[in-house]
């Protein structure tokens, strides 16, 4: 039986992608058919190089736009295969699926990368079928990237995408991997770093992400005010804060909502997180701003420790003071069994802020 194609237009709405909702209620991003085709060509083919012999395996499920592209549309565009599974994803499940299906591309996120490198079975796991792995969804610290390289030796390509631009538009690539960065601009896109007034900043300065390209969304469903704030002409203005190196590599500095002004100076929580992650007693860490009893905003660190001892909190504070400007050290360190996550697997910083106030 022959089925006729629906007469859709390239600019018609194709999907609603819901934003992560880490700072409020998720917004429905209305994306077009054009965006799918554009990113498939620009990122999937030109950066990752999907071929018909690839087999993809994804840690995030298909409701996450990152996985919808990388583990469904991109492999199907070249006749490759995708592995889907219903179980909740754990490091043991990932290792078992790799052993069974021998994928060539692993679509990963920093939280699972951390679980994998720390799993007791990591040394016995055979990841030799993988030609590369990708990471997105939240910042990937250079220290964690290094532990992945040491444990598995599989090229790991960190990148950044947003629902508003459908998928990845900044990425490391094979042969040009720089741990601790988001890599370079994906072909077909343009990225700049600007101040609050939209003026482009010099290399090395931290500012707002502006991006344009053929995958820009129509806007937010029934949220005109936020659409007008974020979509400006050809550009989408994100709440992500970045800096750019002179040779074109971008580094993630956190969300503008998460940036802290401490002692009159700006502080990027990820810088403190990256520092604390280098301490051997730290398994996971998230830094947020919490208003103290005097009404002042102070950095609090929530740490999942590898080991616990009475003097560890003061040791960690001193560790940061010795490596960063003194004002950046966390005023409070709370030890927790695990970090809360959103429905997309990102650290729920809103909950941590509430816990910090309640504590």
CATH topology of the largest domain: Rossmann fold
In terms of per-residue confidence, which ranges show pLDDT below 50 for 5 or more consecutive residues? none
The termini sit apart by 64 Å
> What composes the largest sheet?
7 strands, mixed
CATH architecture of the largest domain: 3-Layer(aba) Sandwich
Number of helices: 9
Following the backbone from N to C, one meets helices and strands in this order, namely EEHEHEHEHEHEEEEEEHEEEEEHEEHEH
At the first level of CATH, what is the class of the largest domain? Alpha Beta
The helical percent reads 25-40%
Q: What structural category arises from helix and sheet content?
A: alpha/beta
Extended strand count? 20
Averaged pLDDT, please? 92
The CATH fourth-level homologous superfamily of the largest domain: ANL, N-terminal domain
Q: How many separate domains?
A: 2
> What percentage of amino acids are in beta strands?
25-35%
The dominant shape is globular
Instruction: List the strand order in the largest sheet.
Output: 4-3-5-6-7-8-9
| Cα-based radius of gyration, to the nearest Å | 21 Å
């Amino acid at each position: 039986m022959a089925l006729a194609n629906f007469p859709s237009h390239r600019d018609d709405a194709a999907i609603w992608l819901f934003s992560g909702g880490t700072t409020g209620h998720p917004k429905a991003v209305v994306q077009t058919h054009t965006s799918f085709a554009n990113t498939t060509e620009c990122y999937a083919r030109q950066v990752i190089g999907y071929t018909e012999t690839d087999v993809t395996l994804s840690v995030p499920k298909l409701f996450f736009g990152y996985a919808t592209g990388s583990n469904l549309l991109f492999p199907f565009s070249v006749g490759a295969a995708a592995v889907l599974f219903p179980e909740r994803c754990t490091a043991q499940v990932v290792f078992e699926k790799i052993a069974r299906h021998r994928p060539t591309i692993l679509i990963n996120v920093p939280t699972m990368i951390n679980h994998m490198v720390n799993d007791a079975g990591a040394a016995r796991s055979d990841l030799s079928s993988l030609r590369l792995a990708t990471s997105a969804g939240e910042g990937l610290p250079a220290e964690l990237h290094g532990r992945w390289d040491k444990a598995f030796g599989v090229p790991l390509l960190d990148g950044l995408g947003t629902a508003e631009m459908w998928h990845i538009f900044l990425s490391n690539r094979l042969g040009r991997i720089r741990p601790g960065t988001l890599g370079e601009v994906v072909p077909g896109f343009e990225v700049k770093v600007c101040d609050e007034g939209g003026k482009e900043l010099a290399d090395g300065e931290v500012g707002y992400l502006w991006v344009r390209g053929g995958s820009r969304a129509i806007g937010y469903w029934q949220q005109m005010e936020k659409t007008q704030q974020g979509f400006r002409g050809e550009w989408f203005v994100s709440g992500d804060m970045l800096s750019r190196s002179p040779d074109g590599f971008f580094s993630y500095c956190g969300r503008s909502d998460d940036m802290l002004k401490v002692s009159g100076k700006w502080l990027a929580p990820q810088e403190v997180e990256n520092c604390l992650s280098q301490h051997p007693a730290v398994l996971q860490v998230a830094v947020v701003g919490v208003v103290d009893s005097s009404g002042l905003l102070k950095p609090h660190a929530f740490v999942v420790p590898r080991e616990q001892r009475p003097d560890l909190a003061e040791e960690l504070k001193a560790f940061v003071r010795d490596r960063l400007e003194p004002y950046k050290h966390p005023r409070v360190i709370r030890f927790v069994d695990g970090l809360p996550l959103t429905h997309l697997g990102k650290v729920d910083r809103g909950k941590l802020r509430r816990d910090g106030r309640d504590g």
